[in-house]
Amino acid sequence: MALKIAHIVRQFSPSIGGLETAVLNLAQKQRETLGIDAYVVTLERVFGLNAKLPAQDEVAGVPVVRLPWWGSTRYPLAPSVLLHLGAADILHVHAIDFFFDFLALTQPIHRRAMVASTHGGFFHTGRFARIKRLWFNTVTRASIRAYGRIIACSQSDAALFRHHAAGRLITIENGIDREKFRGAAAQTQTRTIIYFGRFAENKRLSSLFPILAALQEKHPDWRLIVAGREGEIKAEQILEMARHAGVATAVSCVAEPSDEQLRRLIGEASFFICLSSYEGFGMAAVEAMSAGLLPILSDIPPFRRLCEETDFGLVATLDDPHGTAEMMEANILDETAYRIRRASVQDAVRQYDWNNVAKQYSDACHEVLAQK
């Protein structure tokens, strides 16, 4: 009989983001190549939108169950999850939130083996830092004991959880679907930059526009595309940032793009930019590289490590937009050199392919079941 895994996550497709993409890709690979009966349990509404989604659904061949919830989007309450565990052999909880704590608390009731993936914990911004640290050192620490494995999605996550999850912590860095945007970057060199991902505070989107203004001083063809899902920041606020910086005519903002739309937008660009203050892994940057885009990244540990491991990427200096602009303009290449770099960047992220990563996750689940 096939192993049955319930992936439990607060947000899922049609929501757009690194967490949602990771869960979909993992469940797909488990179903398609590993013979695992994987399904997703998630919330019935996308944060920021009022429309309810179908209670039973299927996304890219993966069965989906959606639950009612209430409370804050930071800690949405959905205790009815206990009614939808079905015949799951193991629960794979994604992120550190209500589901993580509640399923740990109720394990004597549901009696399922469990693993959890960290996805950056809940330290993506500095807001409520003292409360978060207190919660992490008490509630999170207690909940961890119910899980057979805590799977750190990055080296920085591993450092964060190492003390509380000693003896059950492993690191499996997130994978990407290399075919999703493979080779999508502009075929010929352009002075177009794209950011794609969530419109969130930790992405420091306001820092994009001084750099764009400095670039336009060097060459008027520079332009920026901002695409993704609205979060704490709305599309109109992004356009207002561009107007304030005097670069509105060079900025396009596309909210809630489909994968097909996003691939077309990537096709206009030669550079990807992300100036996050915090990332658990930085999936969007790796996806951008699979498209052939040269990444311009902030100086944080996951991005530094990505640049070191792949030998590609430029580190932006947020307090020196003119210096960053000079660095980017220096990376405008002739067509032959551009084609070589475009192909090399794609090849540099082959280690992150989901086929390899899904096998590691599945091995961890089998180990936990064997121990139980």
Notes on the structure:
The chain is of the alpha/beta class and 372 residues long. It has 2 domains: 4-175 and 353-371, Glycogen Phosphorylase B (Rossmann fold, 3-Layer(aba) Sandwich); 192-350, 3-Layer(aba) Sandwich (Rossmann fold), CATH 3.40.50.2000. Helices cover 38% and strands 17% of the residues. It has 13 helices and 14 strands. The chain has helices at 18-33, 98-105, 107-110, 129-144, 155-161, 208-218, 235-245, 259-266, 283-291, 301-310, 321-329, 335-348, 354-371, and strands at residues 4-8, 37-43, 56-59, 62-67, 90-94, 113-117, 149-152, 169-171, 192-196, 223-228, 251-255, 271-274, 294-297, 314-315. The strands form 2 sheets. An 8-stranded mixed β-sheet has the order 3-4-2-1-5-6-7-8. Strands 11-10-9-12-13-14 form a 6-stranded parallel β-sheet, sandwiched between helices. Helix 1 (18-33) packs across helix 13, helix 2 (98-105) runs parallel beside helix 4 and helix 6 (208-218) packs across helix 11. The longest helix is centred in the last third of the chain and has 18 residues, at 354-371. The protein is globular. The two termini are 18 Å apart. The model has no long low-confidence stretch (mean pLDDT 94).
